[in-house]
UniProtKB/TrEMBL annotation:
It comes from the Bacteria. This is Glycerate kinase. InterPro entries: Glyc_kinase_flavodox-like_fold (IPR018193), Glycerate_kinase (IPR004381), Glycerate_kinase_RE-like (IPR018197), Glycerate_kinase_sf (IPR036129). Gene3D superfamilies: Glycerate kinase, domain 1, Glycerate kinase, domain 2. Belongs to the glycerate kinase type-1 family. It comes from Streptosporangium carneum. GO terms for molecular function: glycerate kinase activity. Keywords: Kinase, Transferase. GO terms for biological process: organic acid phosphorylation.
Length: 391
């Protein structure tokens, strides 16, 4: 046998899911006459869009249920589960329930009122069906509500001065007066899988950096920042009062709003840290652990990773770089496939990627690359086979 290849790509956004990318690369290797090469398909994700698809492809079971979408409509969303020796783990992708892609067709974003409630409903559904560990992937959210909707779905009450529950969205947080966690669903641990290191507030915070991507005007950003600041202040006050009374606090540690990752997904990272005592783990690293990447890559001859665009953002630790780092620990070389790339060979080699093969290398028309990504990937795989497996 000529060797084993692990095909571990992320999605090509707008064209192919990560399992589809892996399937086309594998087909291209076979068509190129690499019949003596054992191809292991191991789609990956970093916690954002496509995380559920990736882990289902690695052996998790897909579960679907109806939840609240970002602007209140009902949507059918999925998560993934697997039974492990220490309990059932559920992988929940925030974007499945509360992402921009879940906005009704033709609807404008609703930055002030969009909610993360559906993500909380997915968590509740998983826990009520036996999950003891929740892996919460953050990314692609439509909301900037600090995780308020998520924790409300789990039984936390966010109250105004009159004792009424707050309505959905980040703008409503400006009226937050008190927090009641007595009815919160318990009995599970939460791991947040995210590579975003933004704090909750300030010039690098959730509202300022990500609000405009969700349709927020400069005035909206000011409103959302005020709401998130109010949430952080009331959480801190509630924790202080609980501590003085000798009871468990709302949050696990002081300074949660300033912690890296608190600003992820419109502040849902903060909500998970403050109310669910979550741990934040680097998204791609944690997801590689879940799909047992180390076992598959040990002894492999080559790893093929990739994503839609290999650019400066990739170099800052996105999925292909995480795959390359993991493969390097086993001494296995890595190449990447992509739709297009804007970084040079030396920059790629510096992060452990020997070469990158782009669809635009074989088809300069970007629109055709998007429309015909699958067949073009198979052609790229043929080039990789010729470079690495031809005697």
């Amino acid at each position: 046998m000529a060797g084993r290849v692990v095909v571990a790509p992320d999605k090509f956004r707008g064209s192919l899911t990560s399992p589809e990318v892996a399937a086309h690369v594998a087909a291209g290797l076979r068509s190129a006459g690499s019949g003596q090469v054992l191809v292991v398909r191991l789609p990956v994700a970093d916690g954002g869009d496509g995380t559920v698809d990736a882990v289902v492809a690695s052996g998790f079971t897909r579960v679907e249920t109806e939840v609240t979408g970002p602007v209140g409509e009902r949507v059918l969303a999925a998560y993934a589960v697997r039974d492990e020796p220490d309990g059932r783990v559920a992988v929940i992708e925030l974007a499945e329930a509360s992402g921009l892609r879940r906005l009704p067709e033709g609807a404008a974003p609703a930055p002030l009122t969009a909610t993360s409630r559906g993500a909380g409903e997915l968590v509740a559904h998983a826990v009520r069906h036996g999950a003891t560990r929740i892996v919460l992937g953050l990314g692609g959210s439509a909301c900037t509500d600090g995780g308020a909707g998520m924790v409300q779905a789990l039984g936390v009450r966010l109250l105004d001065a009159a004792g009424n529950d707050l309505p959905p969205g980040g703008a409503a947080l400006r009226d937050l007066h008190a927090i009641d966690v007595s009815g919160r669903l318990r009995g599970f641990e939460v791991v947040v899988a995210s590579d975003v290191d933004n704090p909750l507030l300030g010039p690098y915070g959730a509202a300022t950096v990500y609000g405009p991507q969700k349709g927020a005007t400069p005035g909206d950003v000011t409103v959302l920042e005020a709401g998130l600041a109010r949430l952080a202040a009331v959480v801190a006050r509630t924790r202080a009062l609980a501590g003085a009374a000798g009871h468990g606090g709302v949050v696990r540690a002081a300074g949660v709003a300033d912690r890296p990752g608190a600003g992820a997904a419109g502040g849902v990272g903060f909500g998970a840290l403050a109310f669910l005592e979550a741990r934040i783990r680097p998204g791609i690293g944690y997801l590689l652990d879940l799909v047992d990447f180390d076992r598959h890559v040990e002894g492999a001859r080559l790893v093929i990773t990739g994503e839609g665009s290999i650019d400066e953002q990739t170099l800052r630790g996105k999925a292909p770089v995480g795959v390359a780092a993991a493969a390097a620990r086993h001494g296995v070389p890595v190449v990447a496939v992509c739709g297009r790339r804007s970084v040079g060979d030396e920059e790629l080699r510096a992060v452990g990627i020997e070469a990158a093969y782009a669809l635009t290398d074989v088809e300069p028309d970007v629109r055709r690359c998007m429309a015909e990504a699958g067949p073009l990937l198979e052609r790229l795989a043929g080039r990789i086979a010729a470079a690495f497996f031809t005697p």
